[in-house]
Write a structure and sequence with these properties.
By secondary structure, this protein is an alpha+beta fold. It contains 6 helices and 7 strands; from the N terminus they run αβββαβαβαββαα.
Amino acid sequence: MTEDEARQQLVDAMRSLDARGLNRGTSGNLSVRFASGMLVTPSGVTPDRLTADLMVYVDGDGSVAAGSARPSSEWQMHMGLYRRRPDANAIVHCHARYSTILACAHREIPPLHYMVAVSGGASVPIAPYATFGSEELADGVVQTLDGRSACLMANHGLIALGPKLPVAMAIAEEIEEQAAVYCGTLAIGGPKLLNAIEMERIIAAFTQYGQRDTKG
């Protein structure tokens, strides 16, 4: 993918999050790994005002070229994940409604449905609260996502990562759906959970699920 294509992909994805109701206004941020650093959405720009040239390239040392827009206030969280997770090439952070409700209640999503396993585990854990944009938040999210593809962020929102931006987007959308289902079950007495053995089977099965990239 060229830099121009990567920049436009971020614009399209941010607008898609807004259109699907997974994010609102200037909240949330996206990034893709690029060259020796990453391309990340700018700080404080609504989706309708985003353009490819506003996407910010942040080098691996945290430097930004003179004249660039300011990167998202949470760029350190994205960079920390790329440093820790060589399997991650894209990150989606959004304030989806049901995920944020659970995050504000400090409730992780338990194994109520097999699709919870898209998170990379039997549940969707919660990263500890820290002020947005802080190193403490970045450290907590990086640690919570160790071996996982998604987690909630206490009193904040949702974050997901993947090998490509469309995959990370799909994971974020599925986690939000599971959050909505969980909120619904809590209103009628709570869910009946799948057991650990079944979740282990599901997680193993997910490694072979879907289409595989082929060459030629």
